[in-house]
Design goal:
Number of helices: 5
Number of strands: 0
Oligomer: single chain
Radius of gyration: 14 Å
Structural class: mainly alpha
Largest sheet: none
Shape: globular
Order of helices and strands: HHHHH
Distance between the termini: 13 Å
Length: 111
Amino acid sequence: MKKYLKAYEIGLKIARNAFEIEKEDFPLGDFRALVESFNFDTPVFFLDASGNISSDSVYSIYSQCFYIKGRTDFFEVRLKSLIEFLIQVTGDHLTDAVVKQVRESIREYYL
């Protein structure tokens, strides 16, 4: 679980920086909509103002993985989806070089 959280954190930081440099608005609303779709059974995922997974969410994710069998797979799928969405959004709005940089930055955590 930790590696996916770290991969998203690092990729998001690079992507947000690239959006800022390119003077593009980061589509935070799209990320919030995706994360909201993860909360259909139990509201766990919440993003802060920068798009990071909130500390309360991280705590809840780890707690549920520890106490509820099968929750690790549930959260891994959602975190992978969030990472892939980050890569897709970056590719839709920014250059291929930025997408490559985001992918490379998360490679050691994500693959």
